[in-house]
Structure of UspA domain-containing protein:
Amino acid sequence: MNNLYNESILVCVYYGPNGERLLKRGCKIANMLQAPLYVLTIDPKPFDELDADKVHYIEKWKEFAQAHPTAQFIMKDNEHRPVSKVIAEVAREHQVTQIILGQTAHSRWEQITKGSIINSLVRDIPFVDLHIVSVARYIRDEEGLYEKGVRAYLFQDGEQYQLSFNHDKDTMYEGIFFKEADTDFDNGIFRFMKDAETLQVLVRDGVVTELMNVDMHTTVSLNDIES
């Protein structure tokens, strides 16, 4: 491929259902600009200590890169430096001109109160354009099984968790609740961030019995949270 515009695209992905969405955005931009595409993931643990779920995501990203002749997958494991420093280093090595990152509403609040990866990248590599892609607030649901996601919260109640639509001092997790259509009960999926990983757990009658990630084929959306 002739790189007509001297552009190079870097997509930063982390474990969870939104990686596919970021990859599609990066692939679209790379094809439009006829530019090379790099896919980067970073983990503080060595690769051989990662659990099966994380390895599964890594294999999917590798397959994506292998399926695109101009794409290259980069894994930075056993990495204890700040994430922004690693991203900046990779960007310099590959002469990246555009970086695509995912960001949730929670991380936007952290940006205001504590600073963020975004601010660090702007300082470290000011010559690179940053694309911030919001985490989806919709579940792709062609059969109409779920309603539009709404802001909700979990608080612990013994060994289980109660769903609430009001934030208070006992709130443990903030996220998006996707209610099943055609029901008067709070049944559905609750999607939230836990230890920098996106999880989606089952809710039955307003109760989450365990914080176990649900592997659903319908959870990746191309709709922005602002849509």
Notes: Residues 52-67 form the longest helix (16 residues). The chain has a mean pLDDT of 81. The chain has two domains: 9-134, 150-208. The chain has five helices and eleven strands.
